[in-house]
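Reminder to self: C-alpha coordinates first, then the designed residues, so the page reads top to bottom the way the pipeline ran.
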Protein backbone atom coordinates (compact mmCIF):
# COMPACT_ATOMS: atom_id res chain seq x y z
CA UNK A 1 0.00 0.00 0.00
CA UNK A 2 1.21 3.50 -0.78
CA UNK A 3 0.94 6.29 1.78
CA UNK A 4 0.88 10.05 1.59
CA UNK A 5 4.27 11.72 1.61
CA UNK A 6 5.21 14.92 3.42
CA UNK A 7 4.94 18.24 1.64
CA UNK A 8 6.16 20.38 4.53
CA UNK A 9 6.71 20.26 8.29
CA UNK A 10 5.85 23.51 10.06
CA UNK A 11 6.68 24.10 13.72
CA UNK A 12 4.14 26.21 15.60
CA UNK A 13 5.22 29.74 16.42
CA UNK A 14 4.26 31.74 19.50
CA UNK A 15 1.77 34.50 18.73
CA UNK A 16 0.21 37.14 20.95
CA UNK A 17 -3.58 37.07 20.97
CA UNK A 18 -5.08 39.69 23.23
CA UNK A 19 -2.11 39.60 25.56
CA UNK A 20 -1.98 35.79 25.66
CA UNK A 21 0.80 33.75 24.05
CA UNK A 22 -0.32 30.63 22.21
CA UNK A 23 1.04 28.26 19.56
CA UNK A 24 0.10 28.86 15.91
CA UNK A 25 1.14 26.39 13.20
CA UNK A 26 -1.21 27.94 10.61
CA UNK A 27 -0.90 30.44 9.02
CA UNK A 28 2.89 30.30 8.84
CA UNK A 29 5.60 31.96 6.80
CA UNK A 30 4.90 31.17 3.17
CA UNK A 31 1.67 29.28 3.96
CA UNK A 32 -1.39 31.52 4.28
CA UNK A 33 -3.81 28.61 4.54
CA UNK A 34 -4.31 24.99 3.51
CA UNK A 35 -7.67 25.03 1.77
CA UNK A 36 -10.21 24.82 3.42
CA UNK A 37 -8.30 25.30 6.73
CA UNK A 38 -7.44 28.91 7.52
CA UNK A 39 -5.98 28.97 11.03
CA UNK A 40 -4.95 26.70 13.90
CA UNK A 41 -4.38 27.91 17.46
CA UNK A 42 -3.21 25.69 20.33
CA UNK A 43 -3.74 27.00 23.86
CA UNK A 44 -2.12 25.11 26.73
CA UNK A 45 -1.82 27.15 29.89
CA UNK A 46 -3.08 26.54 33.41
CA UNK A 47 -5.88 28.80 34.61
CA UNK A 48 -4.98 30.49 37.93
CA UNK A 49 -8.42 30.27 39.56
CA UNK A 50 -9.95 32.75 41.93
CA UNK A 51 -11.59 34.65 39.07
CA UNK A 52 -15.06 35.36 37.72
CA UNK A 53 -15.81 34.20 34.15
CA UNK A 54 -16.39 37.78 32.96
CA UNK A 55 -12.77 38.54 33.91
CA UNK A 56 -11.26 35.93 31.57
CA UNK A 57 -11.84 34.41 28.16
CA UNK A 58 -12.94 36.16 25.00
CA UNK A 59 -15.78 38.73 25.27
CA UNK A 60 -18.56 39.09 22.65
CA UNK A 61 -17.31 39.41 19.08
CA UNK A 62 -18.82 38.78 15.62
CA UNK A 63 -17.99 36.28 12.86
CA UNK A 64 -19.14 35.77 9.28
CA UNK A 65 -18.35 33.38 6.45
CA UNK A 66 -16.61 30.38 8.08
CA UNK A 67 -16.73 27.89 10.95
CA UNK A 68 -14.59 28.38 14.07
CA UNK A 69 -14.22 24.96 15.69
CA UNK A 70 -12.74 24.21 19.11
CA UNK A 71 -11.50 20.87 20.42
CA UNK A 72 -11.39 21.00 24.25
CA UNK A 73 -8.75 18.79 25.87
CA UNK A 74 -8.51 20.10 29.44
CA UNK A 75 -10.78 22.42 31.41
CA UNK A 76 -13.97 23.70 29.80
CA UNK A 77 -15.38 26.42 27.56
CA UNK A 78 -18.70 28.21 27.90
CA UNK A 79 -20.28 29.51 24.69
CA UNK A 80 -22.94 32.21 24.62
CA UNK A 81 -24.25 33.73 21.39
CA UNK A 82 -26.73 36.16 19.90
CA UNK A 83 -29.04 33.29 18.90
CA UNK A 84 -29.62 32.48 22.56
CA UNK A 85 -27.34 29.44 22.78
CA UNK A 86 -25.59 28.90 26.09
CA UNK A 87 -23.57 25.73 26.61
CA UNK A 88 -20.50 24.48 28.48
CA UNK A 89 -18.26 22.05 26.59
CA UNK A 90 -15.87 20.03 28.72
CA UNK A 91 -12.73 17.98 28.09
CA UNK A 92 -13.12 15.60 25.18
CA UNK A 93 -15.85 17.70 23.60
CA UNK A 94 -16.05 19.99 20.61
CA UNK A 95 -17.59 23.41 20.11
CA UNK A 96 -18.79 23.66 16.51
CA UNK A 97 -20.15 26.95 15.18
CA UNK A 98 -21.06 27.88 11.63
CA UNK A 99 -20.96 31.68 11.53
CA UNK A 100 -22.89 31.93 8.26
CA UNK A 101 -24.22 35.41 7.57
CA UNK A 102 -23.25 36.58 11.04
CA UNK A 103 -23.30 35.72 14.70
CA UNK A 104 -21.92 37.32 17.86
CA UNK A 105 -20.56 35.00 20.56
CA UNK A 106 -18.30 34.86 23.59
CA UNK A 107 -15.92 32.13 24.75
CA UNK A 108 -15.14 31.95 28.44
CA UNK A 109 -14.51 29.35 31.14
CA UNK A 110 -17.49 28.24 33.18
CA UNK A 111 -18.10 29.96 36.51
CA UNK A 112 -16.87 26.86 38.35
CA UNK A 113 -13.67 26.51 36.31
CA UNK A 114 -12.86 30.23 36.51
CA UNK A 115 -13.12 29.95 40.29
CA UNK A 116 -11.14 26.74 40.85
CA UNK A 117 -8.63 27.00 37.97
CA UNK A 118 -6.60 24.08 36.67
CA UNK A 119 -5.17 22.69 33.47
CA UNK A 120 -6.67 24.35 30.40
CA UNK A 121 -5.94 23.16 26.86
CA UNK A 122 -7.80 23.46 23.58
CA UNK A 123 -7.26 23.75 19.85
CA UNK A 124 -9.28 26.15 17.75
CA UNK A 125 -9.20 25.99 13.97
CA UNK A 126 -11.07 27.93 11.32
CA UNK A 127 -12.68 26.16 8.35
CA UNK A 128 -13.66 28.21 5.32
CA UNK A 129 -17.20 28.01 3.94
CA UNK A 130 -17.95 27.94 0.19
CA UNK A 131 -19.36 31.18 -1.22
CA UNK A 132 -22.75 29.55 -1.81
CA UNK A 133 -23.20 29.02 1.95
CA UNK A 134 -21.44 32.02 3.51
CA UNK A 135 -24.76 33.83 4.04
CA UNK A 136 -26.65 30.83 5.42
CA UNK A 137 -28.37 31.06 8.80
CA UNK A 138 -25.72 30.44 11.50
CA UNK A 139 -25.91 27.52 13.87
CA UNK A 140 -24.15 26.18 16.96
CA UNK A 141 -23.51 22.57 17.95
CA UNK A 142 -21.96 21.60 21.30
CA UNK A 143 -20.58 18.06 21.26
CA UNK A 144 -19.68 16.30 24.48
CA UNK A 145 -17.12 13.51 24.61
CA UNK A 146 -20.03 11.08 24.96
CA UNK A 147 -21.72 12.53 21.85
CA UNK A 148 -18.61 11.96 19.73
CA UNK A 149 -18.29 8.55 18.03
CA UNK A 150 -15.10 6.74 19.00
CA UNK A 151 -13.27 4.11 16.94
CA UNK A 152 -10.91 1.87 18.88
CA UNK A 153 -7.88 0.66 16.98
CA UNK A 154 -4.81 -1.24 18.10
CA UNK A 155 -3.25 0.98 20.79
CA UNK A 156 -5.24 4.03 19.70
CA UNK A 157 -8.62 5.75 19.95
CA UNK A 158 -9.98 7.92 17.14
CA UNK A 159 -12.79 10.40 17.82
CA UNK A 160 -14.73 11.16 14.64
CA UNK A 161 -15.98 14.75 14.77
CA UNK A 162 -16.94 15.16 11.11
CA UNK A 163 -16.87 13.03 7.99
CA UNK A 164 -16.76 9.24 7.70
CA UNK A 165 -14.04 7.03 9.12
CA UNK A 166 -14.60 3.34 8.45
CA UNK A 167 -18.31 2.84 9.09
CA UNK A 168 -18.59 5.75 11.54
CA UNK A 169 -19.80 9.24 10.59
CA UNK A 170 -19.17 12.22 12.84
CA UNK A 171 -22.09 14.42 13.93
CA UNK A 172 -20.77 17.87 12.89
CA UNK A 173 -22.37 19.40 9.80
CA UNK A 174 -19.87 20.68 7.24
CA UNK A 175 -20.47 22.74 4.10
CA UNK A 176 -17.77 21.00 2.08
CA UNK A 177 -16.52 17.38 2.32
CA UNK A 178 -14.23 16.93 5.33
CA UNK A 179 -12.79 14.32 7.68
CA UNK A 180 -11.85 15.70 11.11
CA UNK A 181 -10.33 13.33 13.67
CA UNK A 182 -8.95 13.53 17.22
CA UNK A 183 -6.50 10.73 17.97
CA UNK A 184 -5.01 9.43 21.22
CA UNK A 185 -2.29 6.89 20.49
CA UNK A 186 -0.10 4.79 22.76
CA UNK A 187 3.55 4.21 22.05
CA UNK A 188 4.11 1.79 19.14
CA UNK A 189 0.65 2.36 17.69
CA UNK A 190 0.85 1.82 13.93
CA UNK A 191 -2.08 3.45 12.13
CA UNK A 192 -3.24 3.72 8.53
CA UNK A 193 -6.06 6.21 8.12
CA UNK A 194 -7.88 6.44 4.80
CA UNK A 195 -8.35 9.97 3.46
CA UNK A 196 -9.74 10.66 -0.04
CA UNK A 197 -6.79 11.60 -2.29
CA UNK A 198 -8.55 14.80 -3.39
CA UNK A 199 -8.61 16.07 0.22
CA UNK A 200 -5.91 18.38 1.50
CA UNK A 201 -4.68 16.89 4.77
CA UNK A 202 -2.57 17.88 7.74
CA UNK A 203 -1.53 16.31 11.03
CA UNK A 204 -0.86 18.42 14.14
CA UNK A 205 0.74 16.97 17.28
CA UNK A 206 -0.28 18.27 20.66
CA UNK A 207 2.45 16.25 22.33
CA UNK A 208 4.59 13.16 21.90
CA UNK A 209 6.35 12.00 18.76
CA UNK A 210 5.26 10.40 15.49
CA UNK A 211 7.00 8.93 12.51
CA UNK A 212 5.45 9.92 9.17
CA UNK A 213 6.93 9.19 5.75
CA UNK A 214 10.22 8.17 7.36
CA UNK A 215 10.56 11.45 9.26
CA UNK A 216 10.22 12.08 12.98
CA UNK A 217 7.85 14.86 14.02
CA UNK A 218 7.40 16.21 17.52
CA UNK A 219 5.00 18.13 19.74
CA UNK A 220 3.59 21.30 18.15
CA UNK A 221 4.68 20.29 14.66
CA UNK A 222 2.17 20.45 11.81
CA UNK A 223 2.69 18.05 8.92
CA UNK A 224 1.23 19.14 5.58
CA UNK A 225 0.80 16.04 3.44
CA UNK A 226 0.89 15.65 -0.32
CA UNK A 227 -2.22 14.52 -2.20
CA UNK A 228 -0.45 11.45 -3.57
CA UNK A 229 -2.17 8.48 -1.91
CA UNK A 230 -5.40 7.38 -0.24
CA UNK A 231 -4.00 6.70 3.19
CA UNK A 232 -2.12 8.52 5.94
CA UNK A 233 0.34 6.32 7.83
CA UNK A 234 1.64 7.24 11.27
CA UNK A 235 3.66 5.33 13.85
CA UNK A 236 3.73 6.56 17.44
CA UNK A 237 7.22 6.63 18.94
CA UNK A 238 5.73 7.72 22.28
CA UNK A 239 2.28 8.19 23.73
CA UNK A 240 0.85 11.05 21.69
CA UNK A 241 -2.23 13.11 20.96
CA UNK A 242 -2.75 14.49 17.48
CA UNK A 243 -5.44 15.70 15.12
CA UNK A 244 -6.01 15.03 11.45
CA UNK A 245 -7.75 17.80 9.52
CA UNK A 246 -8.61 16.95 5.94
CA UNK A 247 -11.00 18.39 3.41
CA UNK A 248 -11.86 18.94 -0.23
CA UNK A 249 -10.31 22.22 -1.39
CA UNK A 250 -12.96 24.90 -1.95
CA UNK A 251 -10.73 26.57 -4.54
CA UNK A 252 -12.25 30.05 -4.24
CA UNK A 253 -10.68 33.44 -3.48
CA UNK A 254 -10.19 34.15 0.23
CA UNK A 255 -10.42 37.67 1.62
CA UNK A 256 -10.05 37.81 5.39
CA UNK A 257 -10.23 40.71 7.79
CA UNK A 258 -10.18 39.78 11.46
CA UNK A 259 -13.26 37.69 12.25
CA UNK A 260 -14.70 37.86 8.71
CA UNK A 261 -13.79 35.49 5.87
CA UNK A 262 -15.32 36.35 2.52
CA UNK A 263 -14.41 36.12 -1.18
CA UNK A 264 -13.61 39.74 -1.96
CA UNK A 265 -12.93 43.11 -0.37
CA UNK A 266 -16.43 44.42 -1.07
CA UNK A 267 -17.96 41.56 0.92
CA UNK A 268 -15.53 42.16 3.78
CA UNK A 269 -16.44 45.86 3.91
CA UNK A 270 -20.12 44.92 3.98
CA UNK A 271 -19.45 42.51 6.84
CA UNK A 272 -17.75 45.26 8.84
CA UNK A 273 -20.69 47.61 8.26
CA UNK A 274 -23.23 44.95 9.15
CA UNK A 275 -21.40 44.14 12.38
CA UNK A 276 -21.24 47.83 13.33
CA UNK A 277 -24.98 48.16 12.68
CA UNK A 278 -25.82 45.17 14.87
CA UNK A 279 -26.91 42.96 11.98
CA UNK A 280 -24.84 40.06 13.32
CA UNK A 281 -26.82 40.06 16.53
CA UNK A 282 -26.26 41.46 19.98
CA UNK A 283 -25.03 39.43 22.93
CA UNK A 284 -25.59 40.69 26.46
CA UNK A 285 -23.88 38.25 28.78
CA UNK A 286 -25.52 37.36 32.09
CA UNK A 287 -23.31 35.82 34.72
CA UNK A 288 -25.51 35.81 37.79
CA UNK A 289 -24.27 36.56 41.26
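Designed residues (289 positions):
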Amino acid sequence: MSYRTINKIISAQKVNMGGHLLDQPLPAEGVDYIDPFLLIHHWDKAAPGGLRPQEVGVPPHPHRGFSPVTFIYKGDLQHRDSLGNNAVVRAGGTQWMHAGRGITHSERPSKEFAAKGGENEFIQFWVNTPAAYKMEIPYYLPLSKEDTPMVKLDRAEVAVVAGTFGEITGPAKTYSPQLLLRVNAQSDADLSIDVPPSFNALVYLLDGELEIDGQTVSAKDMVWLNNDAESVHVKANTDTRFIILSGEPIDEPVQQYGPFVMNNQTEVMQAIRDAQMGKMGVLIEEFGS
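The mean pLDDT is 96.
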